[in-house]
Every structure is written in C-alpha cells, then in structure tokens.
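Re: the multi-chain job from yesterday

Posting the exact lines I submitted so nobody has to dig through the queue logs.
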Amino acid sequence: SQQGEEDPQALSIQEGENATMNCSYKTSINNLQWYRQNSGRGLVHLILIRSNEREKHSGRLRVTLDTSKKSSSLLITASRAADTASYFCAAEPLSSGSARQLTFGSGTQLTVLP
Amino acid sequence: DTAVSQTPKYLVTQMGNDKSIKCEQNLGHDTMYWYKQDSKKFLKIMFSYNNKELIINETVPNRFSPKSPDKAHLNLHINSLELGDSAVYFCASISSGGANVLTFGAGSRLTVL
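And the result, structure tokens for all chains:
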C-alpha cells in the first residue's frame, strides 16, 4: 500500500536555523498533508497542498510538491525550541474516493536546541 | 471541549485479556478512523467508518473489532490480547466537505504484559 515516507528519520538543529524535511510517496495523489506530533500527543494538521499546486506557505512553514518526482518537502524557517516534535506527511491517493484514506510514514523527529 | 476524545489514555493489561478503547468526536464529522502507531512511530490505518458503516478494513487480525453505535462514536474492542498489540491507538475523524484533513484524538497507549 502507498506510504508517505519521511526523510531524514531524525534532524537536530540550533534555534534560529531552518529545518527541511522530505517526503516521498508512490502513486498519484489528490493532495499531500503535513502533520505534527508532540511527544505523547495526537497528530495535528499543519498544511495541505493539492496536486495542482507547487508551493504553499503558512507562517514559518513552506511546503513544496513535485508530482513528477512524487515528493514533497516541508521547510520550517527560524526554528524555535517549541518546534521540537515529529513531523509526518500523509498522502491522499487519487483512488481514495469516499474512503478518503490518508497513509502516513514513520515521521521525522525534529529536535531544536536552544 | 476536546474535539476527538479517547478513553482510556493508558491501558495496561495481561496477555489473553479483552479490552476496549472508546472514541467520541463532537465535530459533526461523518467519517472516523482507528490508526495504530508502533514503537517506531509508524502510523498504520486499521479501520474507517462512514456514518456507522465500515468502509476501510485493512489487514488486521479479527481479534480487533470496531463498533460504531452512531456517527459520533467509534469504539475498538480487542480480544485475546497479544504482546504485539502493545502500541498507541489513535482515533481520528474527517470532515464531510472541503479538504480531507484529519482531526486526531490524543491517543490510547496500550501495554500488554
């Protein structure tokens, strides 16, 4: 089954630096989404990019989508210690239909050091 | 008010027991899910219900049985618990219109001894 696979598995940066995480998926999609998970908590939706979009911004977040390479990236600019969390991408397959099935990977663990 | 609430948050039990996890959403969403997150944080979909009807049933042992008494509730019952069932189980729901964005509960950590 299709999965969003994040890369790298872990990333450690200093506060103020930018963090870039990548995601690859396998089949055609309706959209790709990024979620954040703080330790011991549920996932929280961050941003959604549709298959006909190439770039999207939300605050300090910038998401790109390359459907020809079946990949996406999430850039967090001017990182803060509070950004420390796991970040997941989730792809909604084109064939999802009424099921609206989002498939996730195992995430990128981002640690922002103060 | 919590949008998607799960109970219990923690569950520790012996192998062979039967246990249930409950989920309720007050968002008016018509589709609810159960996901399992393993120790490596991989998140795998288990079931999905739309208006009380099962629409996704991934390859999950039949010891796992979801039940949806109404569209605001989706419970997960697990029979004959095994060590490998230890994980964090997340309930989620999705809106019927617009973008398909999931709202997750806080998770239920199941530990089987």
